[in-house]
Amino acid sequence: MVTRRVCQTRFRSLVAVAILSVGVCPVFDLDNLAMAQTVSRPSTRPACPPLLDRKAPRLQDDVPQDLCQFAGKVVLIVNTASYCGYTQQYEGLEALHKRYSGRGLVVLGFPSNDFGQQEPGSAKQIADLCFNTYGVAFPMFAKTVVAGPGADPLFAELARASGSPPKWNFHKWLVGRDGRIIAAYPSAVAPLDPLLIRDVERSVAR
Length: 206
Hints:
Layout: H1 2-22, H2 30-37, E1 55-57, E2 64-66, E3 74-80, H3 89-100, E4 105-111, H4 123-133, H5 153-162, E5 172-175, E6 181-185, H6 194-204
Parallel strand pairs: 3-4
Antiparallel strand pairs: 1-2, 3-5, 5-6
């Protein structure tokens, strides 16, 4: 309170000098002066693109996760399965995630039982395979329907926008920082395939 009174006294003295100098009687609101001088800083958080503007439950505990947290990143979305000939791609996906996460890539895994009934287990069983067997550290989500009329809205939009619906486990979609789909890759394209690596390199460089 003492500091404010001193500041106000000095400020009034300066104002009085200005009035005497120019002969003008301006009106000052000392209580709102500091507020008026405050400059609002624009948010640095990227806008959330429509593709990511949704929530998905986390594999470990079913807690809903806002996919907008990945806005501004390059995202590789994959439908996974525990008992598939391509299940070992988990290793390549984790290697890809580690190699490029520092440059803005994130891999998102969505287990699905849609193809060949190759993901029949519980969330705990799926998590044990992902985290303990393959050392997966990228985000994994709860078991999801990814194909057909009952497909989760995220996967319905991926299929529509890319023209490439999943036909088997470990189908992949690469999404740019702006939320637009860059490319889709069938199951046989491994995570460290030169084609996919090339597209990731170009995407994280933008």
